[in-house]
Amino acid sequence: MSHDLSPRVALIVPTYNERENLPRLVERIPAAPAADLLFVDDSSRDGTAEWVRELATRRPGVHLLERPRKMGLGTAYVAGFRWALDRGYDLVFEMDADLSHDPSEIPNFARKAEEGADLVVGSRYVDGIRIINWPLRRLILSRFASAYTRFWTGLPLTDPTSGFKCFRREALAALDLGRIRSNGYAFQIEVSYYLWRKGFRLAEVPIVFTDRHQGVSKMNPRIVREAALLVPMLRWR
Ligand SMILES: Nc1nc2c(ncn2[C@@H]2O[C@H](COP(=O)(O)OP(=O)(O)OP(=O)(O)O)[C@@H](O)[C@H]2O)c(=O)[nH]1
Ligand SMILES: [Mg+2]
Could you give the domains of the chain? Predict the structure, then answer.
């Protein structure tokens, strides 16, 4: 990372039918560190892309990557990572659009990266559990996924499926993006695992996770199955 005082920061936000959530999301993004915004939209049918295009006319640093159909979260992030690497950003964030992740916590990640972490992962489970409004079965599934991941891989993260993350450029550049196979929760585990195995420094920051108020969850049994099958194989890949 360049060591001037202001790293170039990109926030990547994948969207699929998140129009109702975007105004509040954008409002909550803090002024510092100054960040550009990339929405990766998969042809949402609720006017998400139109809203982003309109925002771009009145707010600098807003970008939209449109894909022709719903292609999954993992490939949306890979497309966003490529976009950010091509443009020379120093810090690249992943963040959900549904306000489950609170943009006001972004500076905490940036601070950790400044202290030397290559990948900062927002965790719901350091020093307790901070989740608002989740049904118990979602919490159990998430906790089980954490234990399962730790058991099979040894990955030292308390919340390996978390999608609120900050990568230092060098870490992102070291990923073999063409090799990433998974698309759902497994994507988060896979990326963190590769960086950890390559010797990059992982750090966690506590986050508060709030269940979505608006819109529809894209979580499904296929995503769970994908993670259950991929995780035990990671050590051999
Ligand atoms: N571009 C794109 N974005 C997606 C896709 N699937 C999910 N997303 C976005 O990825 C983020 C996380 O998806 P969610 O549906 O909230 O999934 P989740 O947070 O795991 O599950 P919930 O707890 O139900 O919200 C949101 O911003 C979604 O709009 C996809 O196929 N393409
Ligand atoms: Mg969500």
Answer: 9-236 (3.90.550.10)
Q: Of 214, 218, 219, 224, which is best to mutate to test ligand 1, by the most ligand atoms within 8 angstroms of its C-beta?
A: 218
Distance from Cα 2 to the centre of ligand 2, integer Å? 33
User: Smallest Cα–Cα separation from 29: which of 18, 41, 20, 38?
Assistant: 38
Assess whether pLDDT exceeds 90 at residue 217.
Answer: no
The single residue listed with the structure tokens 């994948």 is 14
Q: pLDDT for 146-203, tens place per residue?
A: 999 999 999 999 999 999 999 999 999 999 999 998 988 899 999 999 999 999 999 9
Report the predicted TM-score, pTM, of the whole model to 2 decimal places: 0.95
**Does 12 contact ligand 1 (Cβ within 6 A)?**
no
Beta strands at 9-15 and 35-41: parallel, antiparallel or unpaired: parallel
Q: Give all strands (DSSP E) within 44-201, no chain letters.
A: 62-66, 91-94, 119-123, 131-132, 165-168
